[in-house]
Amino acid sequence: MTIRLTFLFCFITLAGTAQQGTTTPYLSSETAALSKYWILFDSKDQTSSPALSQQAYERRQMQNLSVDELDRPVSTAYLSRLKQVGVEPICQSRWLNAVSARLTTTQCATVLAMPFVKAIQPIDPSIVITSVGVPNGSSEAQLAPVMTQIQAPDFAQAGLTGRFVTIGVIDAGFFGADSANALKHIFVREGVKQVRDYVNDKKTHGNLFHTLETFSDTHGTEVLAAIAGSDPIDNIQYGLATDATFYLARTDQGNKEFRGEEDNWVAAMEWMDSLGVRLINTSLGYAKGMSNPKENYEPGQMDGHTSLISRAAQIAADKKGILIIVSAGNEGDDRSWRIISTPADAQGVLAIGATNNRLWNRIGYSSIGPESLPYLKPNVSCFSLYGTSLSAPVITGFAACLMQANPKLTNKQLMEIIEKSSHLYPYGNNYVGYGVPQASRAIAMLRNQPIPTTARSVKATGKSFVLPVTTNEPLISVFHKKDATHVLQQEATKVAGGKLTLRRATNEKRTTVDLKKEVIEVFWE
Question: Could you confirm whether 318 is annotated as catalytic?
Answer without folding.
Answer: no
